[in-house]
Amino acid sequence: MSITPHDERFMAAAIRLSRWHLGRTATNPSVGCLIVKDGVIVGRAVTALSGRPHAETQALAEASALARGATAYVTLEPCSHHGKTPPCSEALIAYGVARVVISVTDPDPRVSGRGIAMLREAGIEVDAGVLEAEGRHSLAAYLTRQTKNRPYVTLKLAVSADGMIGREGEGQVAITGPEARAQVQALRAETDAILVGIGTAIADDPLLTVRSPGLESQSPIRIVLDPSLALPLTSKLVETARQVPVIVVAREEVWPLSADAEGLPPSALPGYRRRATGLDPSFGPPTRGEIGKERDPNSLDDSSLPATADSGRGASSQPTSPPVGEMPGRAEGGIPPTDPTDMDSRRAALEAAGVEVVHCNPYHPEVLLPALATRGISSLLVEGGAKTARLFLKAGLVDRVQLYQAPAVIGERGIESPLDATDILSGFAHTGTLLFGEDRLDEYERGL
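Request: output the structure for the sequence above.
Response:
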């Protein structure tokens, strides 16, 4: 059967439905499913919070006997393997649906093509690739983690009329209006983790939580690039670490150099990648695993995947040098410890307050991001400051840019934005413009 506008209309509705639980389904993707019979929706569902039950089984249960002979519209290929729950493909067969329409084929090697084959072998008609571009957009975080072994990275910048993102020495400076700030809260609510540099953490003392009424429980994991463990114990981040998880990324520990390795940076030493990401049991204390999320056994165990950086367009395969101004002791860093005991005491104090300390060079995002993926983090929002933004841009590890432009003027001592609408990097396409009060949001994305 050829794809009809009727199919596209129901798939568009399924894709909208899938966005309801973005950032809240653990390592499983947030999938939407509609069961349609004679042009009427008789069952609908989105992947449940924490990742189970899956959308298909919930929608089928709602449709009940009406599912027989119906069409199922699913944003991602139904699973075909046994985990904690039976395969969704088996459920679709058992309920007697006549046709399944799919937006995106699942890249998980345990599923890819197998779910479709299982359905067709049972005599069910299957059409795939309906509104695929829109479907891939809604599943961007899951697809990136599956295919690139790292989170999908969004860089958010709010830029004044004179091209600044803040003012030196003044902490948080309001650039956008309340409508735009509310939109950013919604973005945080559908993101697994949010990241800032230590300079922003100290200067702004941000909470980095979701404060929109009704969405407070959806606050992302908060990550601070803090090479010297300079995050103050009195900061809002530390004081709330037991309510919303905080990860501090400190510099890797000093490893003894062999005679033939003398003078090489740690990233050049054998086994550096495994030690720095904490994947090697001999590296540091055991981690708490996936923080604030429940690992889904139905999802691919990323710890078995190689921790490699993107090999596609725009990604750098070389370690990124620390950005000027973010080294310990400068504007974006804390005071470097004078001896290992000082570092140990800082770590102990932060951990006693509920902060997790991870040793992984903060200025090697090509190492840090795969480490975050092993913890089940599929989406990451980079929100401050300018030097941290340049770090991820230079590494070619930004997938989406949200650029807010406001009429406010910063003036003297302004902190220049690392990016504006006239110098968006090659490889990004402008995907839309929205207005929030007096502020303009332009969104740019790199193809998946």
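The radius of gyration is 23 Å.
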